[in-house]
Structures are given as C-alpha cells and as structure tokens.
Amino acid sequence: xxxxxxxxxxxxxxxxxxxxxxxxxxxxxxxxxxxxxxxxxxxxxxxxxxxxxxxxxxxxxxxxxxxxxxxxxxxxxxxxxxxxxxxxxxxxxxxxxxxxxxxxxxxxxxxxxxxxxxxxxxxxxxxxxxxxxxxxxxxxxxxxxxxxxxxxxxxxxxxxxxxxxxxxxxxxxxxxxxxxxxxxxxxxxxxxxxxxxxxxxxxxxxxxxxxxxxxxxxxxxxxxxxxxxxxxxxxxxxxxxxxxxxxxxxxxxxxxxxxxxxxxxxxxxxxxxxxxxxxxxxxxxxxxxxxxxxxxxxxxxxxxxxxxxxxxxxxxxxxxxxxxxxxxxxxxxxxxxxxxxxxxxxxxxxxxxxxxxxxxxxxxxxxxxxxxxxxxxxxxxxxxxxxxxxxxxxxxxxxxxxxxxxxxxxxxxxxxxxxxxxxxxxxxxxxxxxxxxxxxxxxxxxxxxxxxxxxxxxxxxx
Length: 462
Prior knowledge:
Elements: H1 13-17, H2 20-24, H3 34-46, H4 49-53, H5 72-92, H6 106-115, H7 124-134, H8 143-154, H9 167-173, H10 180-184, H11 188-194, H12 221-228, H13 233-240, E1 242-243, E2 255-256, H14 261-284, H15 290-298, H16 301-306, H17 311-317, H18 322-337, E3 341-344, H19 351-354, E4 355-358, H20 361-379, H21 382-404, H22 406-409, H23 412-420, H24 424-436, H25 440-451
Helix pairs in contact: 3-6, 5-6, 5-14, 6-9, 7-21, 7-24, 9-12, 9-14, 14-18, 14-20, 17-18, 21-24, 21-25, 23-24
Domain HD: 72-275
Protein name: Deoxyguanosinetriphosphate triphosphohydrolase-like protein
Organism: Thiomicrospira aerophila AL3
C-alpha cells in the first residue's frame, strides 16, 4: 500500500491531537489546530514539576562534581535539539514526499524529546533497578513506564489524568508497549529471580539480575488502549507482539519489537546525545585519555571499516580547549544526523507505525562503538559504580522505612493517597511514585534526616 493513499489522509488529524480527558468527556474537545495543540504539549512538559526536577537528577556524574557536566535536564534539552534537527533533515531529503505529511512538527518532536526522561528516578539506572526490586511482585518499575504514568496520571495539569498531552505526543514517548506482567510471564530467567528469598540486608544485594523488563504498568493499560485505538486490529497485534530472546539461557530480557515513527526519531536523538555528548563530559573530566580513544575507537575494526572522521577530530577532542572539543562534538553529531533516513516496515498499514527513522549501517556501528566506549570506561568504573551503589541503598532503605512508617514519615498529600489505596500493590505504588519523583539531593537529605543522628531538623520540609 502506498503511503500517499487517501486511506490515511491527514483529514483525521483531530484523532492525533485528542487528549485522554477529551475522550472521557467529549464536551472538552476544542478546535485548536495541530501545531497549537503540540505547542501546548511542549509548554506543559517544560513547565511541569517533573521536568524541573531533572536538573537535580544525574545523567552519569554526581551533581556535586561540577556544574558543567550534564544532568537529565540538560540531556533532555540536547535530545530535543537533535530531534528537531533530525526532523528538519528528513524534510529535506529527496524521498521526503513519501512521508512528509507524517513527519512530526518541531513542536511535537520537541515535546516528545523533552518528556522522554520525566520518569527517571533519583540516582539514574541504579535507582531504577532498586525501585524495580522493591516493586518486583507488584507491577515493577521502569523509567519509561514511569514517564507514561506522569503523562497519564501523576502530572499536575489535571486532577486525575496527569499532563494530559495529545495522543500523538504520548504515543511518541511510549518506547515499550508491553505490560510488566505480560513480559514476566514469558521471561523464565526473571521468574527464577522472583522466586528467590527476599533480601534482608540491602548492603549485600546484587542489582544485576533485577534490571527491569522494558515495560509499562498495568495501571496505565486503559491509556495504552486509547493511544492505539486509531490503528487497525492487525496493526495493534503486531505492534504489541513480544519477542522472546533468541537464546533462552541468556540473561537478556524479553521485549517488544516495534516503536512508532516519532519514537524512532526520539530514540535516535537520545542515542546520539548519549554516545557523543556524554563522551564530551568524559573527555572534559579526563576520565578517558587520547591513547585509550585511539586504541578502542579509532583502531577498532568497525571504525576502520567506515572512517567517519580523520585524526583532526581526535586532535580537537583532546586538545584541552573547550572550544575545540565543542567543535568536534558538534561535527560528530552532524555526521550522524545528516545520514538518517526513513524506511517502511511492511508489517504495518498505518504510516505512524510503518515509517521508521534509521541510521545507515556505518553510522549505526560507529555510534554503538561510542556508546560502548562510554559505558566501559565511564559508567562501569568503580568510582561511578560506587555512587550508583550508594544511591540504590538510599532508595531501598527509604522505600522500606516509608512503607513501614507511612503515618509518621510521609507528607500529608502522599499519606492521603496511601490511606486511600485499596490494596498492598496500590500502597506500594504510592511509595514508589513518591521516591521516583525525588531528586538526588532530596533523596539524600531525606535519608540523612531519618538515619543520621546529627542531621535533620523539625524545620526541614518533607
């Protein structure tokens, strides 16, 4: 089916700017044009408390290391800038006529990119894994799932329906369209972990087996149904299909296979920001040397096979000059963005699922090489892992204490939600939401207030 087919004309654009609250109450619908609806989406994300808190949540380094190095807030802003650059580039490609009508507007892609990390808990992936362990029998915890929960329930713009963004913006943020329990049912390795005795000493807990399935929560299932309702039954079935690992004995989690068109643009922007901008931080902090870069990147078979840049890039990156380093990083980003193209997946009829943004093999392999370089030489070194370990202890200890002493330790508004919850799962989710919304600094101060004798005061606000 040709993608210019009138079956999928933009005459039904109102479907994609609909909000969940408008589905619940059609009288709330407005005749606002799409560009204004997506502009409002972006504004709601920027002005939300969850977005502001990203300034005090780590990307990689501790917040006290330097004001220069990236937080989740600056990372999200960079992802939005790269995302809008990708859209602009795709619009200018020769074959753009085929997909032009379905490219997201700058407002839309920026809203999606700015929102993509709203659900990240304090202390990065260490905090994510710690919360997943505490919620392992009660729906799990995953950063992107928490993002959808903020958009659909926790955000402050509506009493019960969160930030209440448009359908297309919310769909674009949703990276893994599968419910936690559905993934767990197919993951024998994770099931074995669930059968282990509970850990009584968090200091001896090993987080490796507890990386969460890439999922959504059962609590948001009705929102997922609403998001996917414009698609055919066949498209929904394929989109929601779960792919088991090729090797059942591997530790790889089962996961979904497909993402919406806008999501693929956002993910490419995210990967580029992670692989290149986080590399910039590592070089600036002198955590990686030129010799190491030369051996593990420039001399790597994947890079030798493609040669996306010459030694001038290395000279600029390790020159010691922030201007030269920034020039190199900007050039690297451009090398990636300028080669992104759009493919069509024959499994789908609808353009928003059929179209996918991709990197060519050369750029994809080199970007993956950069990501692995950062992962190996920055994220997994003992100095960073030690901070991650401390963060997980704070998160798990706070969870245990707040749940056991809710009436004494929770702030009034959170305690009201806790007391209104009708099940153990719902009560745990209240605690989980509360901790996930904390910044690194707030979680640390709360831990000190509760557990260090000489810290804290009755005048400290909770």
